[in-house]
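Lab channel / #folding
Pinned by the channel admin:
"Please post every new chain as: sequence first, then the structure tokens as a reply. Keep commentary short and put observations after the output so the thread stays searchable."

First post following the new format, from NK:
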Amino acid sequence: MKRVKVHPILETEKKKEIKFYWNGKKLIANDCEMIASALIANGIQIFGHHKKDNSPQGIFCANGQCAQCTVIANGLPVKSCMVAVQENMIVQSCEGLPQLPDVDEKPEFSPIEEFQTEVLIIGGGPSGLAAAIELCKHNVSFILVDDKQELGGKLVLQTHKFFGSIKDCYAGTRGIDIAKILSEELTNCENSKIWTNSVALFVFSDKKVGILRDNKYILVKPKIILNAAGAREKMLAFPGNTLPGVYGAGAFQTLVNRDLVLPSERIFIIGGGNVGLIAGYHALQAGIDVVGVAEVLPKCGGYKVHQDKLKRLGVPIYTSHTILSANGEKKVESVTIAKVDENFQPIFGTEKTIKCDTILIAVGLNSINEFQQEAENANMKVFSTGDALEIAEASSAMFNGKIVGLKITNELGKIEKKIPKEWNQKAKILKSPPGKIHKYKIPEKCDKVFPIIHCIEEIPCNPCISVCPLNLIKIKNDNLLGIPKFEGECSGCQKCIVICPALAITLVDYRQDSKFPTVSVPYELKNFPINPNQKVKAVDIEGNFLDELKVKKVQNVKNKTQIIQIKSPHKIAKKIAGIRIQKREISKSFPKPIIPKTDDDIIICRCERVSVGEIRKWVKKGVTDMNQLKQITRAGMGSCGSKTCENLILKIYQEEGFDLEKITRNTRRPLFMEVPFANFANCKNDEKKL
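Reply from TO:
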């Protein structure tokens, strides 16, 4: 079985197992895990083949936004990433068009239930939960719906410690733990209904919202809608982009961190923002090799401390590089990348091909804004928060959820309280992009004990100043975006090392030996165990090798961060910022790169297998209505409802010189996702199927 056996943060105890059948073969799954996760845990990456060209199909988003992972479960087509496996479930691959089951019995129907509430919150991620907590404080009744089994949104995928401030957004606490904290705060909220496994489908003109709750269709009529539905991942157009093994970064984190499934052995990441950099760290925590990260810009868009953390562990980061192709017949076998010029065009002769079995796409997110638009069309009062409003960090999403919760309370007339000025200021700071990078300075001090802070970029983060018991770490003017500085006589308590989200603080101790001081380094990778007396490769802030040194002691602390104490020569002790664990050979490129096919063969519409060439042909002929383009090519007509391909098609229009303001966009479907007709009628007979 391909499962995570050891993890530095997550519990990996054995769970209850059940049997199910895949194309007639008996397999074992963990009880209640998604079908897709169960299949991948059994080494199955290909879930079927497309009816048009027999191309292999596998998981892509793991979030219900596409339909790549469709299978037949107990006779019905389902998204395998959203449906839990059951004992003795019969699961089959989709080969061409599925055979519909015979219906012999007369259907029985039940009436559609209707509910009323003051607020309907769509999405139980960080912003939705924070807003719900604020509403609860002011006795506002609400229904919160979320399509997953567990509340928290992307928080349940985050094993790293969060940035920001401890007071405002739980900085220094891991995302998985923040999800539990927020969820528990709602357990005693009397005026609330929390519906998991529930999907908001549409906001209708009669001001009612259709919701599919545990496969049962119901209607909710709220006074106000709060759209906290989050975002969906962007896709890229390149040869091989639909091969099994090309995932969204969120899908990978879902498999590895939520379901403890090992989908890969070697990954390559496209995109150097925080999502891509963090996904790389999560892969290493699960024991997966990260053979590289490619970022098209001259510098990574994510925090420098995230980038440095990967570099120190031995992950190469290729800035000013782009992906040329994913290579393989039935699944990903390698990736080809190349340098780009100032116009972001690949430079001939710079291609390199690197062996990998998975390519993570982490090139940004698109807000899920459908519910906002639908509510406005129905003349309903609607608010949006979190990524559904603006793409930002989860710390920002939580704080903005709190603000919008108070706004809604005011709107309902429960209280008359202005949003505190400092709240808006803090919200602005928390969503700030990385700022100025300061010159890296190593302190001159060479006695006693003191921390060295390897954090030189202005980002919203300050837990280190909050935990210092002697108040010796400070930020100028108490600015959350400032650079923390240490001054004074340190006690060596190590609290700043343990809480730092970036693992960017080390402690140098000269007290026992001034010529060979002890350097304490934070570490979180149990799949690469480090033991006393073992020799490790010490590196500087940028990951440059310094020396191979012996480990003196390994400490395990409460928040599951280890502290590795290294005996170091005086001349390099203050330069040590981390330990390299990944060998350089892992990222070695092929002697001869694989050059991809022509751009015209790239698939734009994953559902209907429509290529760049087909789209470009009609764009050049002057088709500016995407609905007409859909009728001609079927692009956007598939199961996902153009959620993945629309932006890629718009990019083609842009490349051909069209003004995007003059392009008629696709008419959105009246439903957020596919729903069997039987669910709308609340057909009782159908409950036996799944």
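NK: The CA atoms of residues 623 and 629 lie 7 Å apart.
TO: also worth noting, The first strand starts at residue 17 and ends at 22.
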